[in-house]
Amino acid sequence: MSATSDHSRLETSHDEGVSVFDRARKLFLRYAEPLELETRHPGQGLPERLVIPDKSIIFRLSLQMDDGSIRFFQAYRVQFNDERGPYKGGVRFHPDVTLDEVTALAFWMYIKTAVVDVPFGGAKGGITVDYKSLSRAERERLTKKFAVVLCREVGQEVDIPAPDVNTGEQEMAWMLDAWRNTTGVYQRGAVTGKPLDLGGSLGRREATGKGGVIVLLEAAREAGIDPSGATAAVQGWGNAGQYAALELAKHGVRIITVSDSQAAIRSRDGLHVPALIDHKQQTGSVAHFPGSEPVDHGTVLTSKCDFLIPAALEDSIDETVAPHVQARFISEVANGPTTPRASRMLFDQGVTVIPDVLANAGGVLVSYFEWVQNRQEYYWSQEDVADRMTTKMKSAYEQVARVATENAVSLRQAAYQIAIDRVARAALERGGQ
């Protein structure tokens, strides 16, 4: 069977109408088939053991608003597979947060940590809330309530939260404060992504975007492409998208198309990235950036360019978008930006897709570095963090690329098979109960 037809079999077996987690789980099981876990290790519950969450925590939060009224919000924390270490994963506050979404994200997180070989499992949490509509005082009260409810479920040896959509250093500081006040223990490593004054790590803010570019440029160089003079499109102008663009620009790549939730813009001569970051900070959007022209949001994903960086939310590239993608390389800085069917179509089209479980692992990698520094109470320089991250990301890419080449499969399948093998071995060594 050819590489293309094998990948097609894996991807087209999925119903795009089912839940995000169901799709992720089914894809995992398909990728696990060649490893023959059940045949090689009969009676050990593999691979089923690896696709069921350890714990799903669902709870209601009440919040007194500034006007004295009381509102209620649904909240979640899913912990997924601690065979290799404590659970690790972000906290997102967004109106579209669901149990299905956080379960899928926790699942991808434990795969991601195994791909880059750091000793964590996966987790994800969140609140279904229009967080941007809350005042600062309401945000603090809600975040601390979330942390208090979870205080028995998280901690530096158990489950370590981190920033995600609409959360950042301030929310992590509030969570750490609530956790300390509730437990009476001050553990800096109970959360990561903290401000530097509270034990945060240098290099954390740029880690996700920068990591995605490190592996992207490795793939490009393997294909004989000089990044100097190449072009790129970036979907999503939050933290990850901005730092990815900055890193690309450092290597001479022209950023020609960019979007955020409100607008999309283009400049054939290239957008000045630092100025666009300032513009977004001042105006709240990339719209009306001097020297740019407005375009439809869909234009970003289908722009004629060398590199495409999806850095927004899940399922941005589906089967309707994939046939029109003109980029040669895609680095999935967002979680799950490409549906399984679209992934197969891109593979058939010859587009190199660096999967999210590798491309956006820079964030969890530097979160791990922060956790290590907190435990040691010894902190590294910016250069130390950058060098360690670059070494780990390049090493992970080389392993994934080698497995993909040796087995004539996609980078996504290779990454999953590396992760599945590592987690399965840890599970077997720990025993069946």
Briefly say what this structure is.
This protein has 433 residues and is α/β, with parallel strands linked by helices.
List the helices and strands and how they pair.
Layout: H1 3-12, H2 20-32, H3 37-40, E1 55-64, E2 70-80, E3 87-94, H4 99-115, E4 122-128, H5 136-149, E5 159-163, H6 169-183, H7 207-222, E6 231-235, H8 239-250, E7 254-259, E8 264-266, H9 273-283, E9 293-294, H10 297-302, E10 307-310, E11 329-331, H11 340-348, E12 352-354, H12 356-359, H13 362-376, H14 382-407, H15 411-430
Parallel strand pairs: 3-4, 3-5, 6-7, 6-10, 10-11, 11-12
Antiparallel strand pairs: 1-2, 2-4, 7-8, 8-9
Helix pairs in contact: 1-11, 2-4, 4-15, 5-6, 7-8, 7-13, 7-14, 13-14, 14-15
Structure, described:
The protein has 433 residues and is of the alpha/beta class. The protein folds into two domains: 1-52 and 205-360 and 408-433, Rossmann fold (3-Layer(aba) Sandwich), CATH 3.40.50; 54-198, Rossmann fold, CATH 3.40.50. 44% of the residues lie in helices and 15% in strands. The protein has 15 helices and twelve strands. It has helices at 3-12, 20-32, 37-40, 99-115, 136-149, 169-183, 207-222, 239-250, 273-283, 297-302, 340-348, 356-359, 362-376, 382-407, 411-430, and strands at 55-64, 70-80, 87-94, 122-128, 159-163, 231-235, 254-259, 264-266, 293-294, 307-310, 329-331, 352-354. A seven-stranded mixed beta sheet has the order 9-8-7-6-10-11-12, sandwiched between helices. The protein has a five-stranded mixed beta sheet with strand order 1-2-4-3-5. β3 (87-94), α4 and β4 form a beta-alpha-beta unit. α7 (207-222) packs across α13 (362-376) and α7 (207-222) crosses α14 (382-407). Mean pLDDT is 94; it is low at 1-15.
